[in-house]
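Input (structure):
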């Protein structure tokens, strides 16, 4: 039970949402929200979740934690999506610069390097914790999907963060093929030239959904 959602039976809610469309899931979640946010990293297929949620809540706060290591294509993609969808984006960045990490960590530590956890905390987890503390959302829309990692196969559409924020994944059951159809139907762009320095391998968790 969450202090932010004292009357929510999350197991029952997950059962009730089985088989519902992404639009129905978003609409239901917005009834639970006083201060919702959606998080994005502008990775492939992100325009789908952003369009989906913003269509129902145009003024929603869009949280972008920019690690500073995105590709040129990702930044161009982000600018286009923000402009086309008229998104209300708030950007958080690490407290340390990439130049600082280049000097103290010799660039991006490999996943077997003991410094990789500190690197991940600096560029992703700390800015996210800071953002959640300052923005104080009660509902957090995200784009995680069941088929992305082994860990996510054990999750559900709804879950609670460690601080009791209701995390909502409207596209949880969708595949890349499903989202290809959504992008085409809504004339939305996509971009595959994407790099996450905290994951390196596509099937790894960066800690965002395991620690927050």
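Output (sequence):
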């Amino acid at each position: 039970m969450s202090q932010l959602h004292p009357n929510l039976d999350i197991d029952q809610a997950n059962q009730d949402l089985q088989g519902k469309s992404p639009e129905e899931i978003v609409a239901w979640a917005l009834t639970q929200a006083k201060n919702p946010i959606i998080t994005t990293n502008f990775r492939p297929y992100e325009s789908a979740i952003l369009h989906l949620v913003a269509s129902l809540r145009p003024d929603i706060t869009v949280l972008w934690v920019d690690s500073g290591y995105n590709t040129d294509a990702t930044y161009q993609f982000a600018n286009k999506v923000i402009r086309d969808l008229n998104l209300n984006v708030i950007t958080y960045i690490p407290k340390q610069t990439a130049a600082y990490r280049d000097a103290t960590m010799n660039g991006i530590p490999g996943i077997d390097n003991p410094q990789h956890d500190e690197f991940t905390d600096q560029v992703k987890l700390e800015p996210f914790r800071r953002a959640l503390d300052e923005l104080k959302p009660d509902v957090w829309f995200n784009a995680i999907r069941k088929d992305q990692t082994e860990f996510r196969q054990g999750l559900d559409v709804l879950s609670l963060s460690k601080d009791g924020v209701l995390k909502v994944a409207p596209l949880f059951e969708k595949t890349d093929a499903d989202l290809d159809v959504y992008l085409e139907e809504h004339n939305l762009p996509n971009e595959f030239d994407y790099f996450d320095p905290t994951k390196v391998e596509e099937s790894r968790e960066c800690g965002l959904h395991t620690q927050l």
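Notes: Strands lie at 36-40, 61-65, 88-92, 139-141, 158-160, 166-168. The chain has a mean pLDDT of 91.
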